[in-house]
Amino acid sequence: MLFSFLRAEFDNMRDGIVYGALVGAGFNWFEAALYVAQNYAEYGEATYGLQLGARYALFGLGGHAMFTAMFGAFVGFATQTQYRWLRVLAPLAGLTLAIVAHMLYNVLPLVAALESAAAGEPAARSEPFPNMGFVETFVSSSLLQLVIFLPFLLILAIALWRSGVWERSVIRDELADEVGRTVSADEYRDIVGDRIFRTRRIDRLQPRVSAALVNAQHELAFRKRRVREAGENPEYDRLIAGWREEIGRLRQMV
């Protein structure tokens, strides 16, 4: 049941990364406010700059957003693969990596404390956090997280790249027999030539309608793939028929 739900929500690793990162970003926002309130209650200092600068370092790509995005990437990968053992192991691998990354970040203060104790330095007393500005905290925390999380960020970058390759292949394969029906010959030529960092447009003079038409074609392709994987005939699927009707409606507006 859970895997069926995930397949309905995620088409690929990219979806998993986006949804996962949004979960982490939301948690970051809640926890930042919580710690600001806690510091103010304990020390009378509202450390907005420190908390927001540290938690949204690397433009929000580090910390909790990265942890949950990594788990989401592997959940998305599980929806792409046809191997049952990978469907089970991929989410567990993503969860393990997220835990390891979080543990690595949290263990640094402990390592520093142990080194101080080994050097015979007295244990530091509880003191308020320094009231650093947002920019200063953002820059220093970004550099620190870039060093600590570099292997994990590379994993996410590779996942995004591979997901894009897989996504374009699905669109190319599933829309091949739609030429003359929901895709024109010129549009399919653009689909075949599509590459990373490109945005396909059908009519640049009407960007909103064009983007909606491109999205409908892509949704049609992914729905056809999902129906085929379920062992059913796409020609009898109501959602596929609905997407074809939507493409026809949008076509009249272009």
What does this structure look like?
By secondary structure, the protein is mainly alpha-helical. The chain folds into 2 domains: about 1-120 and about 130-160, no CATH class; about 175-254, no CATH class. It is about 75% helix and about 0% strand. The chain has helices at about 1-10, 15-45, 50-55, 65-80, 85-120, 135-175, 185-190, 205-230, 240-254. Helix 2 runs antiparallel to helix 3 and helix 5 (about 85-120) packs antiparallel against helix 6. The radius of gyration is 24 Å and the shape is elongated. The two termini are about 40 Å apart.
Number of separate helices: 9
Low-confidence stretches: 1-8
Structural class of the secondary elements? mainly alpha
- Shape estimate: elongated
Q: Secondary-structure element order, as H and E?
A: HHHHHHHHH
Largest sheet: number of strands, sense, barrel closure: none
In what range is the share of β-strand residues? under 5%
Average residue pLDDT: 84
Number of strands: 0
Count of the separate structural domains = 2
- How large, in whole angstroms, is the Cα Rg? 24 Å
Key attributes of the depicted protein:
single chain; 254 residues; mainly alpha; 9 helices; disordered N terminus
Would you summarize the structure shown here?
With 254 residues, this protein is mainly α. Helix content is 74%, strand content 0%.
List the helices and strands and how they pair.
Elements: H1 2-9, H2 13-43, H3 48-55, H4 64-80, H5 84-118, H6 134-174, H7 185-192, H8 207-229, H9 238-253
